[in-house]
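Final report, Chapter 2: Outcomes

The project's central promise was a pipeline that accepts a single protein chain and returns its three-dimensional structure in a standardized token representation, suitable for archiving and comparison. That pipeline is now operational. To close this chapter, we reproduce one record exactly as it appears in the project archive, with the input sequence first and the structure output second.
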Amino acid sequence: MAEENCTHNCDTCGVENCGSRNGGGIEKITTNPQSSFKHVIGIISGKGGVGKSFVTSMVAVKLAREGYKVGILDGDITGPSIPKAFNIHEQATGDGVNFIFPAITKTGIKVISSNMLLQNETDPIIWRGSLISSLLKQFYTDVLWEELEYLLIDMPPGTGDVTLTAFQSIPLDGVIIVTSPQDLVSVIVQKAVNMAKQMDIKVLGLVENMSYVECPDCKTKIEIYGESHAEEIAKEAGIDFLGRIPIRVGTSKMIDEGKIEDLEIKEFDEIVNKIKWGK
């Protein structure tokens, strides 16, 4: 079908040479000659509000603690939250010709975000999808990342234009799907899984955030959203289950204060061990 009428559902399309089929026919973009990545991982969710940026940030923090060189590309262009978590408030700079310079956090994580391009970080970005997609690609190609072992891309929620652009254009090694234990979660997860499969992107696994509340005194686990079915959902979808992340008192406060690199969340040890490649 004509590209402007494409639903990106290859199962219902009879056009074998379609440029959108499994991302085929669309050339992957390359980064600048001064930058390279061993592994590029997208973090996605079927809907907003599940803690996708939190998971992205903590995976980066854990990898950095293990000695890896890590970068975060904040692809949630209209709803960026990565800079605040890392206490980044300055504007991005560049050489005025070829490169945009990322911010570097206190533990050495390189970060770029649309918030770093604004005069005031509370200004909204009111752009159409094509401009948002172009900026995401520019962050990949024009930022002076230098040599990184892991580039993590915090995707916008859902399965819309920007996520599609990233899947088609950026050479991803895999994606992590983030969800929460709420109604319709199995349907939402399956949508994200199906999109990845149709675009021929490997799903590294499923993370359930806000899985339960942990009492700070007795450590009792209280499943405020009901019993978790994340492992069953992952099995039904044919993907690995990476782990459950609890709600703990004080976590949100530390993130709001830009102290995410000071957080100790042991559950991320196992998650990162399951998805990382060796040095």
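Archive annotation: The CA atoms of residues 77 and 114 lie 6 Å apart.
This record, like all others produced under the grant, will remain available to the consortium after the project formally closes.
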